[in-house]
């Protein structure tokens, strides 16, 4: 096990009965990635049987948490997307802990999934986690790298170190985590797929020590690459997916500087790039400036190792577009009000792997 990792046997096990086998995973896997934006579902009062008919005030009154629950209509919309796409593995960012994920699965997904999450380092209590379909018979093991040092100092800390001033923290850790999910045979042998899921440092800089969060995000990405390399050496024949909210442009062209090592040092490629999806169709986030100017960009990515380049089902990789009550795609938000009405400030993406 790598330094700083966390092995939680509670999150190791079979996603089905004891006869779970490799056969169930050898066909295809539908995979999704979604930053669900503050998916908190914490309750201090029993959820009534008629909860779907509650108004928003009644829904929020079920919780006494300092974190506001995700609105009922938005929870319903997110669940409708997942049920329509029916991913075998759904990767989620901004989940309000294990309890929230379990409640979402039970209340809105008919308990179709196993919930897999280790709470990370977020000061906002937003975590990365997985939903794994129970009927797919996937045996999984989840490992956390939340305690793995980034071996990183902010510029002012480097200066302090040079001049002999004490430094409060001589190392930093992931803002959230880099969660490592391994899918194995029922016997728990060599994994046939590894997924690394992260949510890198945002561009917020409230302490005014790291403009755009670039220094911290660079260090986190660097550590994710180190983890990827270690796994590639340990499991040279195992396909690996590296995914998450990167909080920056990590595309192959005009790449933000902090993501350059992805292309210089690894074989990882964006599934949307491999699928030849046009740039304008890859936007997973729309930045609204001055409530009038809207800029679409891709900041959520699923990168795959060379083992998977040819296993992406043609036509399966796409960014989901939210739909209205008639099933028609909603245009990109034109202002902040439009954006706030959406189920999340991000858009999910999905793809299918064949013949793993």
DSSP E strands, number: 15
Oligomeric state as shown: single chain
CATH topology: Deoxyribonuclease I, Chain A
Q: Which structural category do the helix and sheet elements fall into?
A: alpha+beta
Radius of gyration: 20 Å
What are the segments in which pLDDT stays under 50 over at least 5 consecutive residues?
A: 1-10, 14-25
Order of helices and strands: EEHHEHEEEHEEHEHEHEEEEHE
Spatial order of the strands in the main sheet? 1-6-7-8-9-13-10
Number of domains: 1
Give the integer mean of the pLDDT values. Answer: 91
Number of helices: 8
Describe the protein in words:
It is a single chain. With 356 residues, the chain is α+β, with helices and mostly antiparallel strands. It has one domain: Deoxyribonuclease I, Chain A (4-Layer Sandwich), CATH 3.60.10.10. The protein is built from eight helices and 15 strands. It has a seven-stranded mixed beta sheet with strand order 1-6-7-8-9-13-10. It has a six-stranded mixed beta sheet with strand order 4-5-3-2-15-14, with helices on one face. Strands 11-12 form a two-stranded antiparallel sheet. A hairpin with an 8-residue loop joins β7 and β8. The radius of gyration is 20 Å and the shape is globular. The two termini are 25 Å apart.
């Amino acid at each position: 096990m790598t330094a700083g990792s966390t092995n939680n046997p509670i999150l190791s096990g079979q996603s089905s009965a004891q006869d779970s086998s490799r056969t169930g995973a050898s066909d295809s896997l539908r995979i999704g990635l979604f930053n669900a934006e503050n998916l908190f579902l914490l309750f201090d009062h029993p959820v009534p049987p008629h909860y779907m008919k509650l108004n928003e005030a009644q829904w929020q009154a079920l919780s006494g948490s300092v974190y506001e629950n995700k609105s009922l209509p938005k929870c319903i919309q997110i669940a409708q997307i997942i049920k329509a796409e029916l991913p075998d593995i759904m990767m989620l960012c901004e989940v309000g802990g294990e309890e929230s994920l379990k409640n979402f699965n039970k209340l809105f997904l008919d308990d179709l999934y196993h919930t897999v999450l280790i709470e990370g380092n977020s000061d906002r209590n937003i975590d990365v986690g997985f939903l794994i379909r129970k009927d797919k018979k996937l045996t999984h093991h989840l490992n956390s790298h939340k305690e793995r040092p980034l071996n990183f100092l902010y510029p002012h800390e480097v200066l302090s170190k040079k001049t002999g001033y004490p430094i409060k923290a001589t190392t930093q850790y992931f803002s959230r985590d880099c969660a490592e999910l391994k899918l194995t045979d029922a016997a728990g042998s060599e994994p046939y797929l590894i997924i690394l899921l992260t949510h890198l440092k945002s561009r917020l800089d409230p302490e005014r020590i790291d403009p755009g969060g670039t220094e911290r995000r660079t260090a986190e990405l660097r550590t994710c690459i180190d983890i990827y390399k270690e796994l590639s050496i340990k499991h040279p024949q195992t396909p690996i997916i590296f995914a998450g909210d990167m909080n920056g442009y990590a595309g192959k062209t005009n790449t933000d500087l902090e993501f350059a090592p992805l292309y210089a040092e690894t074989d990882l490629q964006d599934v949307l790039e491999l699928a030849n999806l046009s740039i304008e169709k890859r936007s997973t986030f729309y930045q609204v400036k001055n409530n009038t100017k809207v800029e679409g960009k891709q900041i959520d990515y699923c990168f795959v190792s060379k083992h998977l380049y040819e296993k992406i089902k043609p036509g399966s990789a796409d960014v989901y577009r939210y739909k209205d009550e008639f099933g028609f795609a909603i245009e990109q938000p034109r202002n902040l009000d439009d954006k706030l009405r959406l189920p999340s400030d991000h858009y999910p993406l999905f793809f299918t792997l064949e013949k793993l």
